[in-house]
Design a protein that fits this description.
Layout lengths: L5 H10 L12 H10 L3 E3 L2 H10 L9 H5 L4 E3 L5 E3 L3
Antiparallel strand pairs: 1-3, 2-3
Organism: Roseburia zhanii
Protein name: Glyoxalase
Amino acid sequence: MGTYDEECLEVFLKMQTQLFREEVASNMEEAEEFLEDCMAVVCENIEEVKEYLEESGMDVAGMSDQEIEEASEVFPLSDHRYLIVEG
């Protein structure tokens, strides 16, 4: 696998309907292709997530870490990293 590790792909496959009305990928290979096509980003911590979202034009001022983690485009990973997928 390339840019995205196994956990990123598994979490995206499991949680993709939090962002999309229907599944956009049905296996690891399709998930990786989809994430590459939409240029999904992996952030090392919540501060990087905030920076990324601000740079993308989202107003995160005043949002708690929990509110940011619950955003539909943010997929928390088990090791405190985050996958961000823009729909």
